[in-house]
Amino acid sequence: MKKNNRASLSGAQKFSLVRREAIYTGLALIGLIIFWLVAGFGTASVDVKIFHLPLWAVLGTVGVWIVAILISALLSQKLFTDMDLEGDDDGK
Question: Which end of the chain is more exposed for a tag (fewer CB within 10 A), N or C?
């Protein structure tokens, strides 16, 4: 998580950061759903087995979890900002 000087963020800046993070999280969800559709349904005709399971079953379950973990790690390390959401440092 990026660290910001909490005293330097106004309420509007905090709202902007939270809104940006929410938008990117929603886009990540859409990307994960697209991956699930492609991995699960897109590989249904492929005759590949992993541990005696069809490829679509492995990619549509375990693969989705792995991609979700990677997306979450990427978002938390590169995008999310650690900030105090309490109103104490807003000048109120």
Answer: C
Residue 3, beta-bridge partner list: 82
**Where are the domains positioned within the chain?**
9-84
Q: What are 13-37's pLDDT values in tens digits?
A: 888 888 999 999 999 999 999 999 9
Exposed e or buried b per residue across 17-54, where buried means at least 16 C-beta atoms within 10 angstroms of its C-beta: beeeeeebeeebeeebeebbeebbeebeeeeeeeeeee
For residue 90, the model assigns a pLDDT of 47
Read off φ and ψ for residue 27, nearest 5 degrees.
-65, -35
Three-class SS state of 27: helix
Q: Mean per-residue pLDDT for 68-86? A: 87
- Check: CB of residue 61 under 8 Å from CB of residue 67: no
Instruction: List beta partners, residue 53.
Output: 50
